[in-house]
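Deviations from the work plan: none for this task. Representative record:
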Amino acid sequence: MSRAHITLAFAAALSFSVALVAQPPAGGGGKGGAPKAGATVEKIRTLKPNLYLITGGGANTLVRVTPEGLILVDTKNPGDENYNRVMEEIKSVTPLPVKWVINTQHHPDHVGTNQKFIDAGAQVLAVEPLKTFMGSDPRTKDIPGRPTVTFAKDYVLKFGGAEVQLYFYGPGHSGGDTIVYFPAEKIVMVGDQMTDAAPLVDFANGGSLKTWNASLDGALSMEFEFAIPGRGEPKTKAEVQAYRAKIATLAQRAKTGTIDTTDLGWTFQAAAIASMIAEAK
Ligand SMILES: [Zn+2]
């Protein structure tokens, strides 16, 4: 989920606009004012020894440091400034180059600076449908940096003594979301399969509410201390379970043909509700 999604996918399609995500704090945003919360790349934070989180500038980014170079997950919104800021933060903890980039899904806030990393000598690894959707989605087809290595379903990357497991559980937020697991560090990245806002089902790009929870169930079957969402702060297992339960409720209500989400704390536009009901039928 991102503001970019909402702006492009919904506001463009509808003549009215309803805020689906929390507004930035008062004083943030606006022309000439301070940047919106999360709009710029924030300071790098240690999750575990040799595993770091960089929020802001688009989707969350993970950095795994190995003696042979770095493994990065997700490359934020397009733009040299985002790339330069990410590299500045990385260089504050290690001089080593990024050798592998993993994308958790194809939206612009996850793949935006892929090409800069490819130019600097990295491989970009992703599930096959991610590459397909990146090439066909009007929001991403002109963004350079398609994945250079793809896999059909699951993949284990072993590099520099680190192991990263990638799992494709089928359609959810989009048709190409991947759960990324660091078994030694007990950290799982669930990407946009979980966010702080209402779930966005990108039906135009293979998304599905019906099968969404297969990914979260997969993640929940793993041993982890923290789950890293597409945006926002790291989550506990209990928080992932709670989000999964809300998705299940939403999917159940879609089958009935009416969706009331007041008690879930989620707000959807009419078009999104209609699509969820249509899929359930
Ligand atoms: Zn997304």
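Residues 1-32 have pLDDT under 50 and may be disordered.
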